[in-house]
Specification:
The structure holds two protein chains of two kinds. Chain A has ten helices and 31 strands. In chain A, a hairpin with a 6-residue loop joins strand 16 and strand 17. Chain A is elongated, with a radius of gyration of 32 Å. The N and C termini of chain A lie far apart (109 Å). The N terminus of chain A is likely disordered. Chain B is mostly beta strands. In chain B, 9% of the residues lie in helices and 59% in strands. Chain B has an eight-stranded antiparallel barrel. Classes of the chains: A alpha+beta, B mainly beta.
Chain lengths: 495, 219
C-alpha cells in the first residue's frame, strides 16, 4: 500500500508529454519503429514502457535517403530526486523502463530528409575554403533555456573556430556527388586544387539563431542559420560565379551541446547538395573553365612524314623524333610534332619551368622554351631551335579500335634508357572529370610521361601520361588522346 | 527489525541485477551522536561500505560501522539518584550500525558532485554500567546501596533521515564527505531496565546526526 502511495505521489510529477509528433521535410515518409512499419509522417509516437527509454525509428521515402535515429526521451530528474528521498522505493532504483521517468520536452520532432544520391553520377571536385563568419563578435546567438549565447559559449565553439565549422560542412557533403575537401588559398597545394577544379566554395555565415532547452546535458530545440554559399571561380580569383543565399532550420533533438552547431552546419551543407541544378551548374563551370585553359591559337606547320619502308623499319625510324626532356627535378619524354622543333610532352614533365633541356636521339642536347602548358589536360608545348627535324605525323585517335596495337617510346626510369620502345594494345576509352584518356596496357614507367603512343601505321595517337601503380595492379596506363592534346593546346596545323 | 533486514536483503539482491557503476568504501572517521547528553565526538567510528550508481543521478549504498571508543575503553560516567542515594556509574558501550542510503546527485555523478538523499539503518547499542560508589543523603559513601553493581542492556535503534554530501566519481578512487541528520526510532532512553537510569547521561539520543569521511575505489 505504502509503495503504491509513493508511486502515485511521484507520478504526480509526471505532467510532461510522453508522446511526440514526428514530422519530416518533406512530409509523407513511412515510419518504421524497430524495423516494423507503424505509419507515415506526421506520426505520433507514444512512449512505451517496454522501450526502456530508447527506440530506433527510421523514416523512408522514395527518392530520399533513409533517416534512422534513436529517440531518447528526457529523464525527469525531479522523479529521481523523489525516488532518492523515498529510499528508491517508488520506482525501485534503476528501473529505466519506468514510464514516469521519461518525457519529451517538445511536441514535435522535425526530421530533414535528403535526396537519394544516385551511384552512377560523376563526382564533382569542389575545394572548400574556411567559412567566413560574419556574425558580430558580441552578438547574441540565441538562448539555452534563459542563458544567452554568444561566440564564447561552448555551444558556439564551431563558430569561434571556423575550421571546425568548415569540417562539419564537409561532412555534410560526404557520400554525395561532391568530392569536397578543404583547401587554403595562397598555398601551392590550395591554389593548384582550386585551379584544377575551376571552382571553389566559400561559405559565409551571416546569422545564427540557437533556441535550445537543456535537459540532462542533451539539447532540444532549433538552430536557424543564414549562410551564403559563394561559388567562386578557380580561374579568375575572387570572382563570384553564383551564390545560394539560404536560410536553414535544423531541429535539435537530444544532442550534446558541443555537437549542435556542427550538426546544423552539416544539415545546411547537405541541403545545399540537394539544390536543384547545382551539379549541372558546377559541371558547366568546370567545362567552361577547362575550355578556357586552351589559351590562344598556336599555328604550326604540318610535318613531313618520316619515311620508313615497312613495319620492320617503322619504330627504328620513329624513335628519332622522340626526345628526353630534362628538368631540374628529373626527366620525362616528349616528341617532335613539327620539323622546326616543336615538341609535345606532359605538363607534369615541364612542371613550372620556363626552359628545359631536350636531349635528342642523335645525342645532342638543346635548350627548349616552354611555350604553352595546359595543366588541366596535362599537356605542354616546347620549342627548340632547329629545322628539318624528324617529326611524328598526327594520327586519328577517334578511329582507334579496341585491341589495336600501340607502341610507346620514351625514356623510362633512367636517361640512359632513352627511346625505349614498349608494345601493348588499346584497352579502352575513359573519361575522368571532363578529361578523356586512352587506356592501354603499354608499359608506362616513370620517365615515359610525355612520350608518344603510336598506332600500327606509325602515327602518334596519344601522349603517354600516367599509369596506375598499386600493388597487384599491372597493365593499366593512360594517355591523353592526340586530338585532345592538340585541342587543349589550341594548336592549328597549317598545310 | 526483521522487516527492515528483509527490505535491505531484497534491495541488495535487486541491485546486483541492475549494476551500473559500483565501489567499495572505507569509512574513517565517522562521528555519530549516540547520547543525548554527550557530543557526537564521543562516538568515533570506522567501517566499510558499498556504493552503486544506477545512473548519472541516482545512487545507493550500504554501510557498516563500529564504534572505536570501546577499543580505547574510554567510557562515560554519570550519577544516578534513587530515594536520596546517588550512585556513580561508569559506562562502557558497544555500538554497531548498518545502514542503507540513497542519493540524488545534484549534477552528473560521473564527476565530483553534491548529493542529497536519505538513509535508514539499524544501530545496536550494548551498554554496561559499573557502579563505582554510592553516596547517601547524609554524604556518607558506600560500595553499594539500592543500586545494582553492574547493569547491562542492549537495544536496536532505527536511525533515519536525510543525508547530504560531496562525492567523486566511482571510477577509480573517490572520496565522500557527508553529514546525516534525522530521527532515531527507539531512542530517548537508555538500554537499562532499571528506572533510576532514566533521564541520565546514559540516555540514547533520538536525534540522528553524523559527520563522516569515506574513501573508496570503484569500477
Amino acid at each position: 500500500m505504502g509503495s503504491l502511495g509513493l508511486t502515485g505521489c511521484a507520478s504526480m510529477l509526471n505532467n510532461g508529454r510522453q508522446s511526440l509528433t514526428i514530422n519530416s521535410d518533406p512530409a509523407g515518409a513511412t515510419v518504421y519503429e524497430n524495423g516494423a512499419e507503424v505509419g507515415t509522417t506526421p506520426y505520433t509516437y507514444s512512449y512505451d514502457r517496454t522501450d526502456g527509454g530508447l527506440v530506433t525509428l527510421e523514416l523512408r521515402k522514395e527518392g530520399l535517403q533513409d533517416r534512422s535515429f534513436e529517440l531518447t526521451p528526457g529523464r525527469r530528474t525531479s522523479v529521481l530526486l523523489v525516488d532518492a528521498l523515498l529510499l528508491n522505493i517508488p520506482y525501485y532504483a534503476g528501473d529505466n523502463k519506468s514510464t514516469a521517468l521519461f518525457y519529451f520536452p517538445q511536441k514535435e520532432l522535425m526530421v530533414n530528409m535528403y535526396r537519394d544520391m544516385p551511384t552512377d553520377v560523376q563526382m564533382v571536385d569542389l575545394p572548400v575554403i574556411t567559412a567566413e563568419n560574419k556574425v558580430a563578435p558580441k552578438a547574441t546567438l540565441g538562448k539555452v533555456g534563459t542563458r544567452k549565447l554568444d561566440l564564447s559559449s561552448r555551444e558556439c565553439d564551431e563558430l569561434e573556430y571556423p575550421d571546425q565549422f568548415t569540417s562539419s560542412i564537409l561532412s555534410g557533403m560526404r557520400e554525395t556527388y561532391l568530392d569536397a575537401r578543404t583547401v587554403r588559398l595562397a598555398t601551392q597545394k590550395g591554389d593548384e586544387a582550386v585551379r584544377a577544379a575551376k571552382v571553389y566554395l566559400k561559405p559565409v555565415v551571416k546569422s545564427v539563431d540557437i533556441q535550445l532547452t537543456d535537459l540532462e546535458k542533451r539539447m532540444y530545440g532549433n538552430v536557424e542559420m543564414d549562410i551564403e554559399w559563394r561559388f567562386m571561380s578557380g580561374v579568375d580569383k575572387d570572382s563570384v560565379l553564383f551564390t545560394f543565399d539560404r536560410h536553414t532550420r535544423y531541429p535539435v533533438f537530444a544532442e550534446p551541446p558541443m555537437e549542435v552547431l556542427g550538426n546544423a552546419a552539416k544539415d545546411a551543407a547537405r541541403r545545399l547538395v540537394d539544390e536543384d541544378g547545382l551539379r549541372e551548374r558546377l559541371a558547366k563551370v568546370r567545362d567552361s573553365g577547362l575550355a578556357r585553359s586552351k589559351g590562344s591559337v598556336v599555328q604550326l606547320t604540318t610535318p613531313v612524314p618520316i619515311a620508313f619502308a615497312g613495319r620492320k623499319d617503322m619504330l627504328t625510324a620513329l624513335v628519332k623524333a622522340v626526345v628526353t626532356v630534362e628538368t631540374k627535378k628529373g626527366h620525362g619524354s616528349g616528341f617532335l610534332i613539327t620539323n622546326d622543333g616543336y615538341i609535345l610532352t606532359n605538363a607534369h614533365v615541364v612542371e613550372d619551368q620556363g626552359t628545359v633541356k631536350v636531349r635528342f636521339q642523335q645525342g645532342f642536347t638543346l635548350e627548349g622554351t616552354v611555350m604553352k602548358v595546359n595543366r588541366d589536360f596535362d599537356v605542354a608545348l616546347i620549342k627548340t631551335p632547329g629545322n628539318d627535324m624528324p617529326a611524328l605525323s598526327i594520327g586519328d585517335d577517334a578511329n582507334l579500335q579496341l585491341g589495336e596495337e600501340l607502341f610507346a617510346i620514351g625514356t623510362p626510369l633512367d636517361e640512359k634508357l632513352g627511346q625505349t620502345v614498349t608494345r601493348g594494345i588499346m584497352s579502352g576509352r575513359r573519361e575522368f572529370e571532363g578529361r578523356s584518356f586512352i587506356q592501354t596496357d603499354v608499359s608506362i614507367n616513370p620517365g615515359n610521361s610525355g612520350g608518344p603512343l603510336i598506332d600500327e601505321t606509325g602515327k602518334v595517337v596519344g601522349v603517354a601520361t600516367l599509369k596506375i601503380s598499386e600493388t597487384g595492379v599491372q597493365g593499366i596506363g593512360f594517355g591523353v588522346p592526340m586530338s585532345k592534346a592538340i585541342e587543349m593546346l589550341n594548336i592549328e596545323f597549317l598545310k | 527489525m526483521q522487516h527492515t533486514i528483509l527490505f535491505l536483503l531484497c534491495t541488495i539482491s535487486a541491485v546486483v541485477v541492475n549494476a551500473q557503476a559500483s565501489g567499495i568504501r572505507f569509512i574513517f572517521p565517522e562521528f555519530s551522536k549516540v547520547y543525548g547528553a554527550k557530543s557526537m565526538w564521543n562516538t568515533y567510528q570506522l567501517g566499510m561500505g558499498y556504493d552503486h550508481d544506477f545512473n548519472e543521478r541516482l545512487s545507493m549504498g550500504f554501510d557498516a560501522v563500529i564504534d572505536l571508543q570501546r577499543a580505547t575503553e574510554s567510557g562515560l560516567s554519570s550519577d544516578v539518584t534513587y530515594q536520596g542515594y546517588t550512585g556513580s556509574y561508569y559506562l562502557s558501550d558497544k555500538v554497531f550500525s548498518v545502514q542503507y542510503r540513497t542519493a540524488f546527485a545534484l549534477s552528473d555523478n560521473d564527476e565530483g558532485h553534491l548529493y542529497l538523499g536519505t538513509f535508514i539503518g539499524v544501530r545496536t547499542v550494548k551498554q554496561t554500567a559499573e557502579l563505582s560508589y554510592v553516596t547517601d543523603p547524609n554524604g556518607y559513601s558506600y560500595d553499594n546501596g539500592p543500586f545494582v553493581s553492574t547493569a547491562e542492556g542492549k537495544k536496536a535503534l532505527i536511525p533515519l533521515g536525510l543525508r547530504f554530501g560531496l562525492r567523486g566519481s566511482l571510477e577509480g578512487g573517490y572520496a565522500d564527505l557527508y553529514t546525516q541528520l534525522g530521527y532515531v526510532v527507539g531512542g530517548g532512553g537508555s538500554t537499562f531496565t532499571q528506572a533510576y537510569f532514566k533521564g541520565t547521561d546514559f540516555d540514547l539520543t533520538n536525534m540522528a546526526f553524523t559527520l563522516g569521511l569515506a574513501y573508496g575505489f570503484g569500477w
